[in-house]
Amino acid sequence: MEIFAATFQSVAILMGIGLVGFWILARKTVPLDVLKVLTPLVLEVSLPCMIFSNIILKFNPQTDIDWWHLPLWWFAMISLFLVLSLVGMFFVDSKNKGEAGISLLFPNATFFPMGIIPIIFGKNSPLLVELFIFTIFFPILVFNGYSYFFRKNQPKRKFSLAESKILNSVLLATLMAVILKLTKVDRIIPDFVITVVNIVGLTALPLIMITLGGNVYVDFQRRGGIAWKSMIRFVFVKNLIFPMVTLGFLVLVQPPKNVSILIFLQSVVPPLSAVPVFVGRAKGNVALTNQFLVSSFLCAIISIPICMYCYSLFFEIY
Asked: Cα 141 vs. chain centroid, distance in angstroms?
């Protein structure tokens, strides 16, 4: 049960940070508009800095010779998730399939694993760097793919890839750091520069969780009727069916240990915290999406430890 306790602790820490954000907004310590500032600050500054500094400090292409396999495994994983999402969205809510589908397909790919990996595998685990390389194309999928779950709202929309949505800050930070390591140019970067970037990057996780807690408060204030039936079905599919089907896939395929852990972590985490924003842009049901998000987050404190324990029955973790 060691893995259960360690996972529970890591998820509880993330929830605790989110609770701080909820408390700050509830006490009106800061205005609600601060959330509009914090989110781009994290995604455009803090997270890219964290990715860049971690790759520069911990990535070794000479020993991690199979690093380039990671994005390929991600494509295999997201293909499985797409099938599960297309099936699951009809089960969750047949009237709001788009909201269910986008919430199922897009996991909290970076921030939740960032909180779990150091607790379970140690602060110096190579899994953190491998996570960033593994999910390098995730932002491209999100920014260019979310609207296709809402084709009824945009019937004339044609497929297109926006350059600004491809060359995002996270992708550029990852590519730049990997190229610098491959060419060994990173050796000429002054230590103080890396230190500054690293310190800024350390703010990413607490800021995004505080922001998430604040958004939960805002959504709580604006809540309408609770769709209990759809919400329970969503949690069942997202927090239980996704991990168990993924576990079966991993047992069948038997990928490398690091890949197996990364894929399973993606399957157990709640939806991407920005999903309600994308649903709003696509003129979908934001209130229902928020209920999916919050219910999955709250249940994750139990579902993730249970799923990780089940994983440990089939695979070696430590």
From this structure: 13
Please state the φ and ψ torsions of residue 124, each to the nearest 5 degrees. Answer: -100, 15
Instruction: Give domain status of residue 318, yes or no.
Output: no
Residue 285 one-letter amino acid: N
Can you give the residue range of the structural domain that contains 16? Answer: 2-312
CA 48 and chain centroid, separation: 14
Residue owning tokens 């996270």: 170
CATH number of the domain encompassing residue 190: 1.20.1530.20
Q: Shortest CA distance to 274 belongs to which of 103, 18, 83?
A: 103
Q: pLDDT tens across 214-256, in order?
A: 877 877 676 667 888 999 999 999 999 999 999 999 999 999 9
Reported as a single tens digit per residue, the pLDDT across 20-33 is 998 998 888 888 78
Q: Say if pTM beats, i.e. exceeds, 0.85.
A: yes
Long-range CB contact pairs, 149-157, < 8 A, 24+: 149/89, 149/97, 149/98, 149/99, 149/101, 149/102, 149/105, 149/282, 149/284, 150/98, 150/279, 150/282, 150/283, 150/284, 152/98, 153/98, 153/282, 153/283, 153/284, 154/282
Residue 317 placed within a domain: no
